[in-house]
Task: structure prediction
Amino acid sequence: MPMFWIIAFISPVSISPFSIAGNTIATYGRPEAGLFAPQGVGQNLAFEFTYSADFGGYLHKYYLGIQYRGFALSWLSSSVDEFSENTFSIAKAIKNFGVALSIAPEVEKDDNDNLVQKWYYGFGLGVMKVLAPIWVSATVYYGNGYIGGKPFGYHITYDRTYGVLSLMYPARGYTVYLDAFMEKGYPLAVRAGFLMKVHERVNLFMGYDSGSSAFNAGIVVSSNRLMAGYKFTSHPVLGAGNAGSILIRR
Result:
């Protein structure tokens, strides 16, 4: 399996069905916003869990988050065979602005084949504005490097710097999402999503991510305190994937 595609799916893309085709602004009001758009972290107490399996179960991702009064704590884990990556973040939203800090502890081998603890980091800023009838969100994220080794010092090992401009057009029976996503070292990716209300508590969605060439479709069911969603992902070369989410809020 081409490593390019594995990296593309591990790169910063929301895995939740609530985020349609990974659309950043669709994380608004949920704990997951702390990872991708901190300006969208909600005020109400909420717990969120997501699991996804792509490429016939070859790539697994887990997300767990909690938010309260504009603060969000998140954990995101990605694993492919023997490789795994865990990211922890804390985010704060203040009115239309947001800031996020993340760390990713990794144990790696140095040049002498000794195990060394390294701490990768990230820093994100975002802003959101309602320009009726369109919502506009912009996020810039800088990372990652590490602090560690012998002697204790600083060294850039890889760069996951990205920026995303996200638009949302909410209408009475549907919502349209559009993202322009640029990650350093990769071409511009466009994410288009469409959410249609078919019942007071049931929404169907579909979307396309040009960065991974993936088509997404699924369903979201909600009540006053609970949301549940399922997403099916289809890639023309790598096959199918599935994701499920649950959100509990007060």
Remarks:
- The chain is about 5% helix and 65% strand.
- Residues 14 and 22 are 5 Å apart (CA to CA).
- The chain has one domain: 3-249.
